[in-house]
Amino acid sequence: MSNGSPYDAMFSGIIGRDYDMLQRMSPLSAEMSKIVGQAVKLYAEKAGRPLSVVELGGGTGITTLAILSSSDDIVVTSIDSEPTMQNQARENLKQWVDKGRLFFKLDDAYNALTTLPDNSTDVLATAYTVHNFEHSYRERVIEQIFRVLKPGGQFINGDRYGLDDIFEHTRNVQEEVSGFFDVLIAENKPDLLEQWIIHLINDESENHVMREGVSIKQLEEAGFADIALNHRMRVNALVTAVKPI
Ligand SMILES: C[S@@+](CC[C@H](N)C(=O)[O-])C[C@H]1O[C@@H](n2cnc3c(N)ncnc32)[C@H](O)[C@@H]1O
User: Fold this and answer.
1) Whole-number pLDDT of residue 7
2) Best mutation site among 3, 8, 11 for ligand 1, i.e. most ligand atoms within 8 A of its Cβ?
3) Could you say which of 35, 152, 189, 218 has the lowest number of CB atoms within 10 Å?
């Protein structure tokens, strides 16, 4: 992400316009948004007070809705750099905007985070966004997330976390590709199939792939504590981490 490659901004094109299809190609990714919502709910129940949540890569609003539904007492700021995606979320989640519970920011994740004050956010929740980032950009985003979280605040990320066992990981990715063909050939969507395969190659490339072990170490180095990886479902997992008090 963010090195100017034409394939990085693919959510602006056919993938963005036909993003709902992903739920059929990859039901586990839709499940992960619910898991992120449950993690926010758990945090909200323990906190027992109104919470501010920042979401990175809100996309069409699947994860945003899960977060908003987790508690009546949270206000979400959802950041995304792609109008094609965010405009769908604006349409889908209008009622939450009208209630003053949802704000949108059309901006690059890193830029948007740098505008937020230190220690200002209770929860940074996100799904399937951070894995799109190139390594050095991801590192800078993680540092910003740590800075903007309040002490005791939590980072919650449901995402592609590559298995440290490369053989097992490759088998999972091969099955994923096979699933893309099953669904998109049956739907007669060869253009979308092509774009998802190109996207997957980007995700799995050496300068993007987000492996479990490296990611946990990166969070430790940024200062996070209570780092946990749960809900492993093939290449998907939920990672949570707390900014120490
Ligand atoms: C795969 S979608 C995830 C959407 C939703 N969270 C879900 O789980 O379905 C990733 C989103 O992250 C956004 N995104 C990717 N890189 C970004 C960046 N550097 N800054 C802001 N948004 C970004 C994309 O535009 C896209 O909408």
Assistant:
1) 43
2) 11
3) 152
